[in-house]
Amino acid sequence: VQLVESGGGLVQPGGSLRLSCAASGFTFSKYRMSWYRQAPGKERELVATINRSGSMTNYGDSVKGRFTISRDNAKNTVYLQMNSLKPDDTAVYYCQASDDGYVYWGQGTQVTVSS
């Protein structure tokens, strides 16, 4: 099982980034997919979740209206479009796959929002 995040980097406040998470080694379409983030000295927090088909999404309060999660089951990939980025969005972003007690994590990608 592998989850590989990409797309992180340094961006100015107000800018945008699109994260990708490529999955392999399991049946991607059968798993709920989520993005989490962890800032230095803080607990890991849920950013967004999408169900198996992509028809339902849920967001953390701090990112509602700015971030969009989506998935492409044909490409085994989940995305996180991040707009209107703020310095408080600086964190390592992790991809997670979950289903009936099975949980897989990616290695994370750093997002830094700074001028």
Kindly describe this structure.
The protein is globular and about 40 Å long. The strands form two sheets. Strands 2, 4, 5, 6, 9, 10 and 11 form a seven-stranded mixed β-sheet that branches. Helices cover 0% and strands 54% of the residues. The mean pLDDT is 97. The protein is an all-beta fold. The chain has strands spanning 2-6, 9-11, 17-24, 32-38, 45-50, 57-59, 67-72, 77-82, 91-99, 102-105, 109-113.
Write the layout of secondary structure elements.
Layout: E1 2-6, E2 9-11, E3 17-24, E4 32-38, E5 45-50, E6 57-59, E7 67-72, E8 77-82, E9 91-99, E10 102-105, E11 109-113
Parallel strand pairs: 2-11
Antiparallel strand pairs: 1-3, 3-8, 4-5, 4-9, 5-6, 7-8, 9-10, 9-11
Can you give me a brief rundown of this structure?
With 115 residues, the protein is mostly beta strands. The protein is built from no helices and eleven strands. 0% of the residues lie in helices and 54% in strands.
